[in-house]
Specification:
The protein is about 40% helix and about 25% strand. It is an alpha+beta fold.
Length: about 260
């Protein structure tokens, strides 16, 4: 299946993902995923700082791995690669980038299949405007999910946009951040249970679209407050907002409340 997004040529020092195609005595030949038609070679001395008895202890045919480019030859479309010079953080980041690129690729391929719009046309109306603004499509897709509307510069017909949103939600599974703490609510009035219920109801209203809040009893006056949101920062903020609202309401009815920080 044809790629939507391709770079022109690799550069020295760039970190790339490649598939091991052939292993020889003094190295291995690598097919570069990011650069179709380019071939890489990693010499045995660039695989590990340790003495290597068998290259297959480190690489095997068909394996995907992250390499750093040492030299390039644009005429032959070949590069010299290193495995040992790739830092752990570089490897993790590159793998994350690859996974995101694959998800974007899947969304665009499905969009073409479902709508009958050619890949060249989708490239013109979605990819090129994104690249012109120095943005990543994955980030643009996340913004679309959050806002449920396209950015002003992305001119899409409603039917195409709706199908795009559907496919983004289908293919890009967003991990949620979660947090839980104990919440103490008391009200000594005769109908205190009703006031506590009212305070909890008001607190639950603090969640925005796509966020989740649950408050369950652990045994009065202690309740378990759980919050789920898109980011760690937001989930901490949400949990605090819910607790503050519950405490504020219960105090209006003559009660007391406290968020237990160590729970």
């Amino acid at each position: 299946m044809a790629e939507f997004i391709e770079k022109e040529s690799p550069s020295i020092g760039e970190v790339v993902v490649g598939v091991v195609k052939e292993i020889e005595r003094f190295g291995a030949y690598i097919e570069l995923i990011d650069y179709p038609g380019w071939e890489g070679f990693v010499h045995i001395s660039e695989i590990s700082l340790k003495w290597i008895r068998n290259i297959r202890d480190y690489l095997r045919e068909g394996q995907k791995e992250v390499f750093k480019i040492l030299r390039t030859n644009s005429h032959l479309r070949q590069v010299d690669l290193s495995l040992r010079r790739v830092e752990k953080t570089e490897r993790e980041q590159k793998i994350l980038e690859l996974k995101r690129k694959q998800k974007v690729q899947r969304v665009l391929n499905l969009l073409s299949e479902k709508t009958g719009i050619s890949k060249d046309e989708l490239k013109k109306i979605i990819i090129e405007p994104t690249q012109q603004r120095g943005l990543e499509l994955y980030d643009v897709f996340l913004d679309i999910i959050e806002n449920e509307s396209p950015p002003e510069w992305l001119k899409l017909e409603d039917s195409l946009f709706n199908k795009l949103v559907e496919l983004i939600k289908q293919e890009i599974k967003m991990k949620k951040a979660s947090l839980k703490k104990d919440l103490i609510l008391t009200c000594k009035r005769g109908d205190g249970v009703e006031y506590i219920r009212k305070a909890i109801e008001e607190g639950l209203k603090m969640a925005r679209k796509g966020e989740t809040v649950n408050i369950t009893t652990k045994g009065p006056p202690r309740y378990l407050l759980r919050a789920e949101a898109d980011t760690e920062e937001r989930v901490r903020q949400l949990l605090r907002e819910v607790a503050d609202k519950c405490i504020s309401v219960i105090k209006e009815f003559g009660g007391e409340g406290e968020l237990v920080e160590e729970s």
